[in-house]
Write a structure and sequence with these properties.
It is a single chain. By secondary structure, this protein is an alpha+beta fold. It has six helices and eleven strands. The strands form three sheets. Strands 1, 4, 7, 8, 9, 10 and 11 form a seven-stranded mixed beta sheet that branches. Strand 2 and strand 3 form a beta hairpin. The longest helix has 16 residues, at about 15-30.
Length: about 230
């Protein structure tokens, strides 16, 4: 008869084993550094609601985030690169991956190809299709390959921020926290605003602190002025 203290074991799925191997290699071989800032998401919330009401399409914050990151990368080409021992390879396309949780099996990262050249509705439609394929285990190799960067919106779980591990061979990952009401000063007045934290994890072999900080500020500028993402 087995006792109450018998050790229970759970077999790792293929997806979970792959995640474990890749992230262990990333943490062991890539010198990570982290940068974090707080942004005012009040306009982001309002513009998204106005867009939904006007167009009857329920775009998500993820769609705006993907567009903001892709647009920002155009000014920071080192973010869109690969470290190659004796050189840095700059990529020609801006392809933004976004994390999709699959419960106990872990996370997959489908890719919006040429995200900088697509409008919000195109990104929305492609993201919805890729999520459906991910949950039905129908993603193809081309759906998850050739990422420039990964974005991870942990705000949907109520999390304020995390220090994410880079998905190799990428050189950065950006996480977005929950939008929360916080008290702050605006033009000398104390008021409640909707705020969100953005965190960059970057490969220090390719990106230095100042470069990474400026990239985060660029993302912040787009998200605090979201009408720029809808033009």
């Amino acid at each position: 008869m087995s006792g109450d203290n018998e050790v229970k074991k759970i077999l790792l799925s293929t997806t979970r084993r792959t995640i474990a191997e890749r992230l262990l290699k990333s943490k062991q071989s890539i010198p990570h550094f982290y940068a974090e800032l707080e942004m005012d998401a009040t306009n982001l919330v309002n513009v998204r609601e106005e867009f939904i009401n006007k167009n009857k399409v329920k775009i998500s914050y993820d769609d705006l985030i993907i567009k903001a990151v892709a647009s920002s990368i155009k000014d920071f080409p080192l973010i869109n690169s690969r470290f190659k021992e004796t050189e840095i390879e700059l990529l020609a396309e801006i392809n933004v991956g976004f994390a999709v949780a699959l419960g106990d099996e872990g996370v997959v990262v489908p890719v919006i190809k040429n995200a900088d050249k697509k409008d919000i509705l195109q990104i929305y439609e492609e993201r919805i299709l890729l999520i459906e394929k991910a949950r039905n285990r129908k993603l193809r190799v081309e759906d998850i390959s050739n990422r420039s960067i990964t974005v991870n919106n942990v705000g949907v779980f109520g999390i304020k921020s995390i220090l994410a591990i880079i998905n190799p061979p990428e050189v950065a990952i950006v996480t977005f926290g929950a939008i929360q009401d916080r008290v702050g000063a605006v033009n000398g007045e104390i008021m409640v605003r909707k705020m969100m934290d953005i965190t960059l994890s970057a490969d220090h072999r390719v990106i230095d602190g100042a470069y990474g900080a400026k990239f985060l500020v660029k993302i912040k500028e787009f998200l605090e002025n979201p009408n720029l993402l809808l033009t």
